[in-house]
Amino acid sequence: MEKYLNLKLTGQSAAATFLWTAVLFVAALMLIRPCAASVANAAQQEALGIKLAKQAVREDKHWTTVDHSKIEMLNQDFTSGDQITQACLSCHTDASMQFKETIHWTWKVPSEKQGIMNGKAGHAVNNFCISGNAMEDKGCVSCHAGWNDIQGEVNCLACHGKEKFPFKETFADLAAFEGDDDPDLVEIVDDLHNGIQQAVQNITLPQRNNCGECHFKGGGGDGVKHGDLDTSLARPNRMLDVHMAEDGADFACTRCHTTVKHHIAGRLYTRPAAAERKSLIEDDMASKITCESCHSATPHKASTKMNDHTDKVACQSCHIPEFARVNPTKMSWDWSTAGKMKDGKPYEEKGDLGKPVYKSIKGDFTWAKNVMPQYYWYNGSFDNIGIKDKIDPQQIVEVSHPLGSPNDPDARIHPFKIHSGKQPYDKINQQLVAPLLSGPKGFWTTFDMNDAIIRGNQTLDVPYSGEFDYVETTYAFPITHMVAPAEKSLDCIQCHTRDNSRLAGITGIYMPGRDKFAIVDTIGLIAVLGALAGVTLHGLGRFFTRNGREE
Amino acid sequence: MAGKTMTNVYLYTRFERLWHWCQALMVIFLMITGFEVHGLYTLMGFDTAVELHNFIGLFWLGSFAFFAFWLIITGEWKQYIPTTRKLFDVARYYAWGIFHGQDHPVQKTPGAKHNPLQRLAYLGISAMLLPVQMVTGLLYYLYNSLGGVSLAPIAFIHTLAAFLLVNFLIIHLYMTTTGHSLFSHIKGMITGWEEIYDTTKIQEWETKATRKT
Ligand code: HEM
Asked: Residue A56: CB partners within 8 Å, gap ≥ 6?
C-alpha cells in the first residue's frame, strides 16, 4: 500500500505537485494575511492615540460672556489685596471658600501615618530647602497664593491675573503717598491706582506663566527642583514640549491638570494623580491628567509592538528621552559645606552652565542639562521620609521614592529625576531636621546651623537633641513634562540591549535582548562549538583516510 | 568496491524539495533574527530583527500546518517511524566504517529515504524540537495577551531549543557531504534524483533509465 502511494505520487505529473505547493503557500498566506494586512493598513493610518487626542482638544478656544473691564465693582481705587479679593467674591461667592480647602492654600495633606501631615507646611521634608517650617520660613511663603502669608484672603490674581503685577510694592507705595497734596504725588497715586485697576481687570484662566511663577521655580530658582519644569516651558517650541509648544498644541497646564472646585488634578504625595487609568472613550468626564486619558491605552499604530508595552511601561519612559533640555536643572545639593566666608562675607561661585555651584548660604550644587532619567516601577504613589521618621544614617536616605513593583497592575516603569542631597540630621534621635533658613534668626543670616535647627524644629514641635551631622539623601521627581516629538522617542535598543540598557536597574522581569540565562547560553555554546568540532574532526578523518578507499 | 554499479533513483518529489528549501530558508532566517534579538550581535537592528522574526515565525507556523497535513494524507509520515533495526550498524558506520571504505549499511530507496539514524534524528527534530520552538515562539508572540504568564520560562526554552537547532543544522549540513560524492545528497534534494550504489534491488520504475520525463 505504501509503495502504491509512493508510486502514485512520484508518478504524478509536474502539474499536480505544483498545485500542492501552490495550495500550501496560498493557504499559509491566507492564514497570516490579517496580520500582514493590518500592518500595511497601519502604515497609512494615523495612530489611534493621535486621532483621539486631536478629538479631545478640538474645542480649543475658551470663550466667556464676561468682560471684567466692564464690571463696576472692579473700577475702584484698591488699597489692599484683600479689597481686591472682596470685589472678586462679590460675584464669585464661593471661590475663596473652595480654594482654602485645597493643598495650594493649606500646603498640607493628611498622611496615612497617624499624626503626620504631609505637605511643605507639614512634616514633609525634601533635600532642597528642607522644610517650610510650618510657614514660619518667610522665604518659602513668597509662593503661597495669599496676599499676606496664610492670613487674610486668597490672592485670586496669582493664578487668574494675565499680567504679572507687583502688588506688594505698589500697595506699599500707595500707603506712603496717599493723602499727600503735592500735585506730583497725587499724579503718582493716580497712576498707581490705574495700574492696579488694569491688572485687576485683566483676568484670565491660569496660563503657563501663572502656574510657572511658582512651579517652574520650585526649590528657590529656575529649574531647581523638577527637571521637567522650568521657565523654558513658558514659551516652549515643539522640540521641547509637543503639548505646550507655541507652534504645537499650545496647552495651558490646566488642559491636563483638570480642575474641580479649585482642586487641581496632580500628584499628592501618597495619592496617585489618577486612581483609575481611564481614557475619555471610556468616560468622557475622566480627568485628563494621564497620557492615556486622551491617547488611550493603545496609542500607537495598530498591531505594533509598542502597544504591547503600555501596560508596563509609562509613555513618558520612551517619549521623554532626556529632561532639562533647554535650561539646566539642579542635580545635587550639599548643605555640609554651607557657611564658608570670603573676607568675612558670604559669597557665591558660578559654574560653567551659568548657575551657582557654591553659595555660602546653601552649600555646593551641581547642575546638568539634557539629563537621562532614571527608571523605577511607579504606581503613582511615593514613599516619603518625614521629619518624624527614623532614618539609618549609614545608608543613603530615600527621602522620597516611587512605590510599585512588577506585579502591581497599576505600576509602570517610569522616568525620574533623582536629586541627591547631603543634609543635616539629628545624630541622637536619628531623624532628619528642619533648619530655619530665612528671617533675622534664620541660617541665611546667622550661619549657625545648630541654632537654625533648634528654631526650625520648634516650629514643627519636633524635639532636637542638639547634635547634628550630615547624611546623604535622594529625592525622586517623576518626569512627565517635556514630551518630545514622536521621532525623538527612544529606540527599542536603548533598553533591549545587554550593556548599558536604560532599564538595567529594573529587576524581576525578563526582557528580550537585555536578559539571558547563563546556563542556556553555556549549553548552547557547547552544543554549537561541539558540533563544529565534531564535524571538523570527522571530516578531517575522512580526508586523511580518503574514506578508506585504496587508489 | 570496484565494480559497483551506480544507479539513479527519484527520491524526493518536487513538493518535498520545495518544502525542504523553503523551510530551510525560514529556519535559517529565524536563527539569524532570533539570535540578534537574543543580543548576540547587531546585524539589521533590534526592531527589524523582531519584526522579521515574528513575520517569518508566523508564516512558518502556517505553512508547517500544511506540510503536516501533506505528510498525513500521503502517508509519508511513515518515513519517520523510528526503528532500532540497523541503528547500531549505521552508527558504527559513521564512527568507523566510513573511514575504512565500507559501504553504508542502509541504502536510500524511495520507500525508505532516511536511514534509521536519520529517522531518529528527524523525528526528534520535527516531532520534538520544531514543535517546541513553534509553541514557545507562539507563546512568546502572544505573551502580552496571555495575562499573568511569566516570560522567563518561555524565553528559556525558546532560546535553548534555538541553540539545539543550530547544533542540528551544523551536523545536518556536514552529513550531506557523506554521500558517495561530496554533493550527491545536496544534488538529490535539488533535482530529486540521487545517485546511489546499486546494492539493493530497485524496482524498474524507480531508475532514471526507465523513467520517462
Ligand atoms: C527555528 C525556529 C526559531 C528559532 C531558531 C528562533 C530563535 C529565537 C531566539 C534565539 C530568540 C531570542 C530569545 C531570547 O533571547 O529571549 C527568539 C525570540 C522570539 N521568537 Fe523565535 N525562533 C524560532 C521560531 C519562532 C516562531 C515559530 C515564533 C512564533 C511566531 C517565534 C517567536 C519569537 C518571539 C515572539 C520572540 C521574542 C522576540 C520577538 O518579539 O521577536 N520564534 N527566537
From this structure: A280, A288, A293, A294
Tell me the backbone φ, ψ of residue A377, rounded to 5 degrees: -65, 140
- Once rounded to an integer, what is the mean pLDDT over residues A501-527? 95
Nearest CA-CA partner of A220 in A166, A289, A161, A142:
A142
CA distance readout (Å), B186 to A243, B97, B121, B123, B198? 62, 22, 18, 20, 19
Q: What is the ipTM of this complex?
A: 0.84
| Cα gap A14→A25, rounded to integer Å | 17
Task: Considering only the beta carbons, identify the residue of B1, B18, B75 that sits closest to A21.
Answer: B18
Q: Is the dihedral of CA A438, A441, A447, A452 positive or negative?
A: negative
User: Within 10 A of B3 (CB to CB), how many other CB atoms are there?
Assistant: 4
pLDDT (mean) for A301-311? 87
pLDDT tens per residue across span B10-60 = 777 888 889 899 999 999 999 999 999 999 999 999 999 999 999 999 999
3-state class of A25 per DSSP? helix
Q: A178-182, A474-478, B65-69, B165-169: lowest mean pLDDT where? A: A178-182
In this structure, the number of other CB atoms found within 10 A of the CB of residue B49 comes to: 24
Q: Which of A526, A220, A479 is nearest to A372 (CA)?
A: A479
Greatest Cα pair distance, chain B, in angstroms, is 68
Model confidence at B197: pLDDT above 80? no
At B197 the three-state DSSP class reads strand
Distance (Å, whole) CA A292 – CA A277: 7
Can you say how many angstroms the Cα of residue A386 is from the centroid of all Cα atoms in its chain?
21
Tens digit of each residue's pLDDT (9 = 90 or more) over A409-452: 889 999 999 999 999 999 999 999 999 998 899 999 999 999 99
- Rounded CA-CA distance A86/B106 in Å is 106
pLDDT tens-digit map of A129-148? 998 887 777 777 788 888 87
Which 8-state DSSP code applies to residue A133? Answer: G
CATH of domain B6-208: 1.20.950.20
**CB within 8 Å: B47 and A493:** yes
Angle at B46 (CA atoms; ends B45, B49), nearest 5 degrees: 85
Ligand 1: distance of its center to the CA of A319 in Å?
27
Contact A2 B39 (CB under 8 A): no
Looking up cell 532639562 gives A324
| Mutation target vs B (from A8, A20, A526, A546; most B CBs, 10 A cutoff) | A20
**pLDDT value for A1:** 34
List the Cα angle B143/B147/B153 in 5-degree steps. Answer: 50
Helices (H), A12-79: 14-44, 48-56
Question: pLDDT value at position A269?
Answer: 62
Q: How confident is the model at residue B119 (pLDDT cuts 50, 70, 90)?
A: confident
CB distance A307 to A298 below 8 Å: yes
The predicted-structure confidence for B174-189, as pLDDT tens digits, reads as follows 988 887 777 878 887 8
Find the A167 Cα to ligand 1 centroid distance in Å. Answer: 67
Please report, to the nearest 10 degrees, the dihedral formed by the alpha carbons of residues A551, B2, B4, B6 taken in order: 40
How many CA atoms within 13 Å lie on the side-chain side of B199?
A: 13
| Selected residue with higher pLDDT from B202 and B70 | B70
Q: What residue type is B166 in one-letter code?
A: V
- B150 Cα–ligand 1 center, Å: 16
Question: What are A265's three cell numbers?
Answer: 488634578
Q: What confidence tier does A483 reach under pLDDT thresholds 50, 70, 90?
A: very high
Tell me what pLDDT residue A32 has. 54
d(CA A292, CA B52): 29
| Closest residue on chain A to B161 (Cα) | A524
